Amino acid sequence: MTLDRAVLAFAGCMVLLSVVLTVFVHPYFVWFTMFIGVNMLQSAFTGFCPAAMLFAKLGIKPGCAF
User: Fold this and answer.
1) Metal-binding as a keyword (predicted)?
2) CA 59 to CA 50: how far, in whole Å?
3) What is the pTM of this model?
């Protein structure tokens, strides 16, 4: 698995988790969903992604985007 796919998989899991938490735990978890979306947008424009930096330090091989 490349770094790009790992970041996309992680982002998808976090979005799904936040939606489940919003539905079953408390509606304020929608802010977590919004945070993830904003982080994905800023990453698309700036190229700065904390998850990509973490996965790179864990030894996942780089892909095209990161």
Assistant:
1) no
2) 15
3) 0.86
